């Protein structure tokens, strides 16, 4: 039979928890002291004052809202601990690491090159979608660790369905098909339409794209709304989901920042008394017939096309096969144009769209190979032409403009 414990042993065991508790309190106070430093006074991600949570492997202090997002990243990305509740995990080495890192050094690392168009959260009314998108971009994809190359426009066109608020009835939203390419954002009733209902000129002046819960966003908007403020009108748009919201908002922010002040640049505007002056159809680099959708009536008719290369590439089309004396029925200005597969949006096989500054043209080739040949030839002429937007712009946000 085991002998009863000695009184001295009991006293010693009773003292051990008290000694551990006392050590934990000291360590917790030390961590609280680190959190009270000016550089850690605001959440590392959204700027909320007095953060009381930490990511012990990232070395940052965060608020309870951002802590919830960090937990969803997985412990291989971020290990979240509470300053006040987790009082037994503050080993001296961990305290030393938190003191050596902190929010300021972490921000210098993970926000070294944040482009000015990126949607950033703000603590006052930050939605979970804005917060999560920002945190994942910083710590999972590490998009801002290194200084990116200068942004060059145009890029691939961005298109999709959005809901647009009616200017006369603010409670009414209409679904429209939007296409952004270069400085123009065009919207159509249907994806198969050739002529847009309207256009938003991103180079017309100061264009601000606001996202709810982000820096500069309107708190009255819903989580999937964003606005485009132009000198003449404010457009309110609703995205179908959070991913689409950020794709549109950041692309439009980038385009608006890039084209700001370039509205009077002649290279940004198609013009001139005769746009096809100097274009010789005999010098065409590609010829053939395709079906073309009309603009107003949207009827499909077969036309004969001649692709002309040069500084101002042009796609001429004729009712009958050209013989050198016929005047073209019309033309597609290809300077700064973009191509995309339109089989789904048009409902026709072997169909592709040519997106220009003023409208989009739907063309249907004879078969898959013919479609690929036409798209390759047209894209080659566009690439070889004098760039419509040959401006390299550094859109990295100045350090002084970043949130503390």
Mean pLDDT level: 76
Can you tell me the CATH class of the largest domain?
A: Mainly Alpha
Number of strands: 19
CATH superfamily of the largest domain: Arf GTPase activating protein
What overall geometry do the principal axes of the alpha carbons give?
Answer: elongated
Major sheet summary line: 7 strands, antiparallel
Helix-strand category: alpha+beta
Provide structural commentary.
- There is one protein chain.
- The chain is α+β, with helices and mostly antiparallel strands and 404 residues long.
- The protein has three domains: 27-140, Arf GTPase activating protein (Annexin V, domain 1, Orthogonal Bundle), CATH 1.10.220.150; 158-260, Pleckstrin-homology domain (PH domain)/Phosphotyrosine-binding domain (PTB) (PH-domain like, Roll), CATH 2.30.29.30; 286-384, Pleckstrin-homology domain (PH domain)/Phosphotyrosine-binding domain (PTB) (PH-domain like, Roll).
- Helix content is 27%, strand content 23%.
- The strands form four sheets. The chain has a seven-stranded antiparallel β-sheet, covered by helices on one side. A seven-stranded antiparallel β-sheet has the order 15-14-13-12-18-17-16.
- The termini are far apart.
- The relative contact order is 0.10.
- Mean pLDDT is 76; it is low at 1-28, 261-274 and 386-404.
């Amino acid at each position: 039979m085991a002998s009863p414990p000695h009184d001295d042993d009991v006293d010693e065991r009773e003292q051990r928890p008290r000694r551990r508790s006392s050590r934990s309190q000291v360590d917790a106070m030390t961590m609280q002291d680190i959190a009270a430093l000016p550089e850690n006074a605001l959440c590392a991600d959204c700027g909320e004052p007095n953060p009381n949570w930490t990511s012990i492997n990232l070395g940052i202090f965060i608020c309870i809202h951002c802590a919830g997002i960090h937990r969803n990243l997985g412990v291989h990305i971020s290990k979240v601990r509470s300053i006040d509740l987790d009082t037994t995990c503050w080993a001296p080495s961990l305290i030393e690491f938190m003191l050596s890192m902190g929010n300021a050094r972490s921000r210098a690392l993970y926000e070294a090159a944040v482009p000015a168009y990126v949607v950033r959260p703000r603590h006052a009314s930050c939605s979970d979608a804005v917060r999560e998108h920002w945190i994942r971009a910083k710590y999972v994809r590490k998009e801002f660790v290194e200084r990116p190359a200068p942004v060059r426009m145009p890029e691939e066109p961005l298109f999709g369905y959005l809901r647009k608020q009616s200017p006369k009835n603010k409670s009414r939203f209409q679904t429209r098909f939007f296409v952004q390419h270069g400085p123009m954002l065009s919207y159509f009733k249907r994806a198969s339409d050739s002529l847009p209902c309207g256009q938003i000129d991103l180079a017309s002046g100061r264009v601000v794209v606001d996202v709810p819960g982000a820096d500069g966003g309107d708190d009255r908007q819903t989580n999937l709304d964003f606005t485009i403020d132009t000198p003449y009108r404010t457009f309110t748009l609703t995205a179908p989901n959070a991913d689409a919201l950020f794709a549109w908002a950041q692309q439009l922010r980038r385009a608006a920042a890039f084209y700001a002040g370039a509205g009077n640049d002649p290279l940004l505007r198609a013009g001139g008394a005769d746009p096809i002056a100097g274009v010789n159809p005999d010098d065409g680099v590609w010829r053939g017939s395709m079906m073309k959708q009309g603009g107003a009536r949207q009827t499909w008719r077969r036309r004969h096309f001649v692709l002309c290369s040069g500084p101002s590439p042009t796609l001429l089309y004729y009712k009958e096969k050209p013989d050198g004396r016929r005047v073209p029925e019309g033309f597609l200005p290809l300077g700064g144009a973009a191509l995309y597969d339109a089989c789904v949006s048009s409902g026709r096989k072997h169909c592709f769209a040519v997106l220009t500054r003023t409208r989009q043209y739907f063309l249907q080739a004879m078969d898959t190979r013919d479609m690929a040949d036409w798209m390759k030839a047209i894209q080659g002429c566009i690439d070889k032409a004098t760039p419509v937007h040959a401006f390299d712009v550094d859109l990295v946000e100045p350090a002084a403009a970043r949130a503390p």
